[in-house]
Hints:
Oligomer: single chain
Number of strands: 2
Strand order of the largest sheet: 1-2
Largest sheet: 2 strands, antiparallel
Low-confidence stretches: 1-19, 205-211
Amino acid sequence: MSDPISRRSFALTTGLVLAGAAESMSADEKPKTDPPKVALGPVEAPFERDYPPPGFKPSWKKPQVNRTLAADFVIFAHSEFELVKKLLEKEPALLNATMDWGGGDWESGLGAASHMGRRDVVEYLLDRGARIDIFCAAMMGQLDAVKSFLTMQPKLIDAKGPHGFSLHFHAQVGGKEAEKVLDYLQTVKKIELKPVPFLKKKTDTSAKKPE
């Protein structure tokens, strides 16, 4: 009577059989795997110092705010007020966080809300200590602040905000509350004012009356 097959010898034999079966499969019979998926998202530009590194070495005592979270916050600040509040409660450090849309097109949540004319989002962020700038002041109709900025630095009349939007543009999206700012900017530098598509949509929507 032959010896009973041990667990180890059974496993070894089974492995050899399966390996041989796999090798005997033709190329067409072998299971096909999908090609690896390429993650979509921002790509950091390659960089190599061609100058001496700074003498100061950052300690990095705390982790940086996650880049995806910062980008989501800025994107939501264009139109999603409730999500702005939710993310800011989750991570207060997002208040002045910025994202680079590419090529140095930096934008903060306040900048996003400002060029969209989202007064509600802007007021919420300012109330929590967001750093106001001349573009936000122009949209909010803060004439004295805009005058002070331009008195201190006249070249700001040609400054560009996120996505290249001008001071005049920000005053346009400010609507009626920013009309005096827009008139003042036109006295400093008169330009041709082009229609703002999303501002027109907002106006048309608010003009509709329920039947």
